[in-house]
Amino acid sequence: MCGKGLGRLPPCRNQKRCALNQILVKTRLGRHIFGLFQAVIPNFVFACTIGAFSNLSTQSQLPMLWKNRDVSNPNQAVFFFAQGKYRYLGLVYADDSTQVWAGINEKGFAIINSNSANIGPGANSGPSDGEIMKYALQNCASIEDFQHFLDSTNLVGRKTPANFGVIDSTGEATIFEAGAYQYQRFDATKESLGFLLRANYSMSGDSTQRSGHPRYLRAMQLAQIGQSQGILNAQYIIQKIARDLGGPDFDPYPLPFCDTFGSYPFGFLPTTATINRYRTRACVLIVGQPKMPMMWTILGEPCIGIAIPLFLNAFAVPPQISGPGLPKICAQAKTMRELVYMGTDLGINTFLLAAIQKQTLPLENQIFSLSQAQLEDWLNHLPGSLAVLSFEESLAQRVCEVYENIGWGEEKSFPIFHSNILVAPILTTTTNGLKIIIREKITNENLPIRFKVYNIFGQKKAEITLPAQTQSYFWLPEKLSSGTYFLILEPNHQIVAKFHYLSENRD
Length: 507
Hints:
Penicillin V Acylase, Chain A; Immunoglobulin-like; seven-stranded antiparallel β-sheet; 22 strands; about 25% strand; Ntn_hydrolases_N
């Protein structure tokens, strides 16, 4: 039932990847429906969204950094680096550790970034943003250290205009809006809310060119809600902000989305301008815990994945997250993403997404609870690195098992259909038709009764228009294949019935 959960979904434990493979085969059939939309999707490939939260703004009174990493390459990993002045954890491409895209070091200094489109072009020489962050993690112990480094790169230039979010052990959080040869500093503690957010533009740049502005507005809305409720913490930011599929004036929750958005199929949502985007490949939430620096990590799209805590004190990263090669968790997340996007980048099937989250969120909630309890114990008695790594590996293994056993049947992927207050038809299928008996009164007796018929992929396959006050009708489908279908009442898109149709052609 839309908005009320999908019921318990049985993991297909005894049939090797049967559910995933079955759905993957089926989704190939639905790809053609997205062809019309491909030309209108903006090419904001590197469209990250970030936040820098000072210790004055968070529930824990610890500084935090958040980043949704939006890039074309889905192959992500987290490595532990021992090279340089300071040891650190870094988010990287699985096959390239020469640049780092988010991380925290042993001094409690952490850094993230988003590209900026309105502070001019980059320089022809100098370091790129990924090289800047790698150097900073190796050599900077504080925000002031990083600012001195930026001063030095002002001379040689920076190739990539970017917003750099940084925190350190003092609890401060700062964003540097860095162009090719200059930068502007913004301190979160000087802001009324105590935190700063950025999409893909800089506040110091051209105000007429604000790439990703709807993402910024939506993230600001959600962050202020969390702060006003006293729950602006790692779990809230990951579950309510990083995963968000809404907009400043649009809230699709709770999932599944039981309506039609523009020209998209029923239950599908576009993710081109949302915080959780179709090219969000990873999410990190860094907590500036002085004794136990940590980085919550999701490899893959946040709305699909499960967050895992990584502590610098482990001095290593579980192989499920670091590799060698493509980390297992990243590979599994890519498979699930293929399902909910039906093999495209153009719209997410919220029915399948809700089915996945029904199985992933319980474990993630457990991980947050277990990690908090474990952290409290460790802060009283600092652990050895092997104990920390063992804890992380146990969580990573549980995540892999849940991903491996994601399962649903055709009956469970979509809501259980309920009696509708407007019209509750009784459906009887015959050899080649469908008998519709309307057993409840229509609110407006003078208007025709209109239904649409959708298949399990959200494709509209037929329309049925009945005269007002119709009580019984026999519908003979034309060119309808055998399968499971849903009857949707227009114009309010209430799902009123499900039926299984067997074509006389036995196709």
